[in-house]
Amino acid sequence: METNVGVEEAAKILESQGLSEYRFNLFRSCLLRECYSAIEEGDALRAAYAAHQADIFKEYSLIEHHHLKEIIWLGYGCYADLTKNEGMTEQSAKERKLIKGTIEKIRTFDTEYLYALAKDGSDVASRLTISGVSENTLRALIDHELERREKDREENIKKEEIKIKKAANSIKLWGFLFTLANGLILAFYKNWIG
Predict the structure, then answer these.
(1) 12 — phi, psi (to 5°)?
(2) Are the CB atoms for 24 and 36 separated by under 8 Å?
(3) What is the C-alpha separation between 20 and 148, in angstroms, rounded?
(4) How far is CA 155 from CA 51, 104, 158, 161, 185, in A?
(5) Are 140 and 117 in contact (CB under 8 A)?
(6) Angle (nearest 5°) at CA 75 between 69 and 78
(7) In 124-161, which positions are buried (b, 16+ CB within 10 angstroms) versus exposed (e)?
(8) How far apart are CA 119 and CA 2, in angstroms?
(9) What's the CA gap between 185 and 177, in Å, rounded?
(10) Spatial distance between the Cα atoms of 8 and 6, rounded to a whole number of angstroms
(11) Which pTM value belongs to this model?
(12) What is the residue-wise DSSP string for 112-169?
């Protein structure tokens, strides 16, 4: 491109039509024109910066190419699945999904109810309407949730204690300053009276 006139409007039109590859090529062309102008003016830093940006937009347009884009995203999806389920069998993947759903359901119940479920010795799965997870696993998950809640409660208590100690320290400081001010006033008053 010789000038940047109308580039923004053209880019908006290309973006609205879903032609990202051509939009990136348009930006690349503008930046290459900027690079050539900077070279003609002797501004090496501006030329290098424009050339670098033009190269970035070239890479973007390659990624947006309709043939490559599908392959890239399919590959990324496969990679994400492999890393997420690395070393898992189909059965263990199903079990993991069941356990995650069970944890979410357990977290909806209050602490007293969970404590009762954990300690009464009766069937837990039927009362939670959960199937596919063993009783031992359910009890372990409930115990873990109770421990997690207890840790959270202890942390909150510690935070509150710290707040109270800070408030008490500031009260002590103000008390000390007030006493000191009273002592100074009394000393100056005695010197003033004679």
Answers:
(1) -65, -40
(2) no
(3) 48
(4) 54, 22, 5, 10, 45
(5) no
(6) 140
(7) bbeebebeebeeebbbebbeebbeeeeeeeeeeeeeee
(8) 79
(9) 12
(10) 6
(11) 0.42
(12) HHHHHHHHS-S-SHHHHT--SS-HHHHHHHHHHHHHHHHHHHHHHHHHHHHHHHHHHH
Terminal-residue alpha carbon distance, the chain:
94
Structure-token pair, residue 134: 């063993």
- The rounded distance, in Å, linking the Cα atoms of 44 and 42 is 6
156 pLDDT more than 70: yes
* Torsion of the alpha carbons at 49, 50, 52 and 53, rounded to the nearest 10: 120
Shortest CA distance to 14 belongs to which of 3, 5, 25?
25
pLDDT digits (tens, 9 = 90+) for 91-148: 777 777 888 888 888 888 888 888 888 888 778 877 877 778 888 888 888 889 889 9
Q: Which helix (H) or strand (E) holds 67?
A: helix 66-84
**Residue 55: Cβ within 10 Å count:** 13
- For residue 6, the SS3 value is coil
Nearest-angstrom CA–CA distance, 180 and 172: 12
